[in-house]
Amino acid sequence: xxxxxxxxxxxxxxxxxxxxxxxxxxxxxxxxxxxxxxxxxxxxxxxxxxxxxxxxxxxxxxxxxxxxxxxxxxxxxxxxxxxxxxxxxxxxxxxxxxxxxxxxxxxxxxxxxxxxxxxxxxxxxxxxxxxxxxxxxxxxxxxxxxxxxxxxxxxxxxxxxxxxxxxxxxxxxxxxxxxxxxxxxxxxxxxxxxxxxxxxxxxxxxxxxxxxxxxxxxxxxxxxxxxxxxxxxxxxxxxxxxxxxxxxxxxxxxxxxxxxxxxxxxxxxxxxxxxxxxxxxxxxxxxxxxxxxxxxxxxxxxxxxxxxxxxxxxxxxxxxxxxxxxxxxxxxxxxxxxxxxxxxxxxxxxxxxxxxxxxxxxxxxxxxxxxxxxxxxxxxxxxxxxxxxxxxxxxxxxxxxxxxxxxxxxxxxxxxxxxxxxxxxxxxxxxxxxxxxxxxxxxxx
Length: 445
Ligand SMILES: *Cc1c(COP(=O)(O)O)cnc(C)c1O
Prior knowledge:
Blueprint (H helix, E strand, L loop, with lengths): L1 H12 L1 H4 L11 H5 L2 H10 L1 H16 L8 H7 L11 E3 L3 E3 L10 H10 L7 E2 L4 E2 L4 H10 L5 E5 L2 H12 L4 E5 L5 E3 L2 E2 H6 L4 E5 L7 H7 L4 E7 L15 H4 L6 E6 L15 H6 L4 E5 L10 E5 L1 H9 L10 H12 L4 H7 L2 H12 L6 E10 L8 E9 L2 H7 L3 E3 L1 E3 L2 E5 L8 H12 L1
Parallel strand pairs: 1-16, 2-14, 6-9, 6-10, 10-11, 11-12
Antiparallel strand pairs: 3-4, 5-13, 7-8, 12-13, 14-15, 15-18, 17-18
Pyridoxal-5'-phosphate binds next to helix 9 and strand 11.
C-alpha cells in the first residue's frame, strides 16, 4: 500500500519522465471506456452501476500491470456478469428430485411463462370487465379449489411455515396446541416446528412419547385451553419398530379443531409414494385445516397452501397478519399454471422410466471419452419420502470433475459417490441433455 502511494508520488514528481512510459498513465478514462459500443449495450441491459464497477476493476488491473492498458475495454466486456442478479442457472444432476439448496422444485415452462406475463402490470386484483377491484389471486385460488374438491375453502401464503404460523395465530392465541412427542420435528437448517409455533404466543401441549402416542393421550389433554390438535407428517425421517401414531380419522373424532401439516404438498394420492399423505385423503378423513408447501412434490413456486372448512379458512384469511404473509403476483401466476398446466418437471422426474434414463446416459457417454454409464439410486428429497428409492442411471466421471462442472460456464451439480462424480439423469430434464454434454466436454477436454 505504502509503496504504491510512494510510487504514485514519485510518478507525479517526475511526470515528465513518466508520461508515455508508465502504464498507469495510459489507463483510459472511465468515460472513454464506457463509450465502447459493447459497454453502451451492457449499460442498457445491466445498468450503469454494474458496468462501471466492472470497468473500474479492469482499470485497476491495468494500473497493477496485470493487463495492458489498451485491453481495458476488452477485459471489462469479458468479465461482465450475465445478468443484473447473481443467481445462476444450475443443471441438477444430483439425483435429488426436490433439492432444497438448488431452490426446490424447478418450474414448468407453463409456470415460467405465467410468471413472465404476471411480472408486468396485471389484473391480479382488478376486474377488467367491470373496472372494479377484484379478489386477489382468484385464478390461483380457483385452480387450487378445483384440484382439491374436498376443501370448502383454500388460501395461499408465503410458505408452509407461514401457513402454520397463521393457523397458530388465528386458532390458538394464548391457548394450547396439542402435539404428539413423536412429531416435534426439525425440518432443516435448524428450523424447528415447535419453536415456530410457540413464537406466536400459543403454547405446545406435548402428549404421548417419542415412539408411541394413543388417542386417549390426546383426549386427556383436551380442555378449555385447547386451541387445536396438530398432526405433523414427519417428512424427513421414519420411525420403525414399536411405534404407534393416531390416524387422522381417529383424531377427527376428538372435540377440538384438527390441523394436519402434510408437508410436501401432494393434493391426491401418488402411486409411487404410498406413504406420503395427500390433502384430499386427509380432508376426507376429517381434518379441519390442512397445510402444505407449494415447491416440494406439487412442483410449483414457494408457497404455503391452506385447505379446510369454509369457516376456518375464512377466519385465517381475515386475520390481520394474513396481509404480512401474502404472496406476490408472480407466485400466484406460477401456482395457477402449475395446477392447470402440463405435468411439472418434478412429476416427470418422479415418473421417468429407468430404461429411458439408461438410454439417455448411454447416448451421452458415447460422446464422452472416459465416461461410463452406471445404475444408481435417486431420491425424492425436499424432506419428503425418505424411504423411497428411485432406480436411476448416471454418467460416472472422475471425482475431480465435480468442482470443474460446478464452476463451468453452465453450472452442473452432480453427486460424489465412492470416489466418482455421478451425473444422475433422473433429475436432468431431457431438453438439458445437450447443455449437459457441452458442460462435461468443456471440463474434461
Ligand atoms: C417442508 C416442511 C415444512 C416447511 O415448509 P416450507 O414451505 O419450507 O415453509 C413444514 N412442515 C413439514 C412437515 C415439511 O415437510
